[in-house]
Automatic annotation (TrEMBL), chains A, B:
Keywords on record: Hydrolase
The organism of origin for this protein: Ramlibacter henchirensis
Top-rank taxon: Bacteria
Annotated GO MF terms: (S)-2-haloacid dehalogenase activity
Catalytic activity, as annotated: an (S)-2-haloacid + H2O = a (2R)-2-hydroxycarboxylate + a halide anion + H(+)
Family matches, as NCBIfam families: HAD-SF-IA-v2, HAD_type_II
Keyword match Mitochondrion: no
EC number: 3.8.1.2
Role description: Catalyzes the hydrolytic dehalogenation of small (S)-2-haloalkanoic acids to yield the corresponding (R)-2-hydroxyalkanoic acids.
CDD domains: HAD_L2-DEX
Name of the protein in question: (S)-2-haloacid dehalogenase
Amino acid sequence: MEKPRAVLFDAYGTLFDVYGIGALAERLFPGQGQALAVLWRDKQIEYTRLVTTSNDGAHYRPFRELTQAALRYACKRLALALTEASEQQLMHQYHELPAFGEAREVLQALRERGVVTGILSNGDPPMLQAAVASAGLGPLLDHVLSVDPLRKYKTHPQAYALGTQATALPAADILFVSCNSWDALAATWFGYRTLWVNRYRLPFEELGTQPTRTGETLRDVLAFF
Amino acid sequence: MEKPRAVLFDAYGTLFDVYGIGALAERLFPGQGQALAVLWRDKQIEYTRLVTTSNDGAHYRPFRELTQAALRYACKRLALALTEASEQQLMHQYHELPAFGEAREVLQALRERGVVTGILSNGDPPMLQAAVASAGLGPLLDHVLSVDPLRKYKTHPQAYALGTQATALPAADILFVSCNSWDALAATWFGYRTLWVNRYRLPFEELGTQPTRTGETLRDVLAFF
């Protein structure tokens, strides 16, 4: 099989390490940080799906707003009193996320091979630009693609189609990389070649489709080349 | 405001009590039953959303199949060995669900007032018919509507539109009742009057829309009349 001509990465949890969010949550709410971080993340994803499915985008709100709404829900659910200061601290984490340790070397290796690189994310442009700048990855990325102009989140096929449009390549020539199993699944459905980076040794989704490959870190991208 | 002319109920967790599923899970996997029931239910709903959003129904599978896939995922995630016998026992629970204690009297009261009654559910027709028969609610329901022919699950607006089509009533003349906050939310977005039956004292979704009313049991339906 031909080598991929472009590699598109999911952002949160894939290129950017969101561990610090849970750590801050634990400092703010001792003993509840892990529960808050998990519920916050689950709700954030749920909200992207609810607004995407319902009424053709009429209820779309940018990722920052859904993230904030999900945080408020999660705190209410766990009976945690969320002060304005704590909310701002937690939300601000999304603007200064570190990249995973191996992200830079993998992106550099791709560039050296002449492979097109990019992010394809649910994040809205200001969030993404802040994270890219904070992690210092800007010079290594050809594309930073946000679903925001579409008003539809992944896993909508139009969201994945941003990658083929931006690169002017067919999906089968693009490797899509995600640590989120649902994202790797839907990208496979869309037609991308996929790498599921299974950092946390989780089972894959049971919907009858497997990613092209499964790896443990971003370094496994390089095995495609 | 005019009284509603029809009342449509969500099925699982709203008319039908799914508590027995967790109880059986606990007998099969002592100490893990609650975790399994929660993860199973969350994954079941997640799978309805993934197949609805992705590729316009190409990956649709009936609710029974998604429910089974979600059970398998949840057991793998929790490292529980799911035998074929245990899987069959757990899946069979969906076919013999009891109704909540007050369901019958509420449906009877609606019928006495000449109000059209029905179920609007993600369940596929065999699952729904089995649950309706098991709970003995068939004679009290004018409609048992499944999203299955559409190949799209709630919260897709076409799923909610099954209710207006079947009753030939405008959405504003129909009361939609659900214990699931996401369902009450999206039904409100669709245009139904809504009652969120908040049995477990949870927060409502933080997406800027409230249900028409919030109650604690199905009896709160009758306050609309």
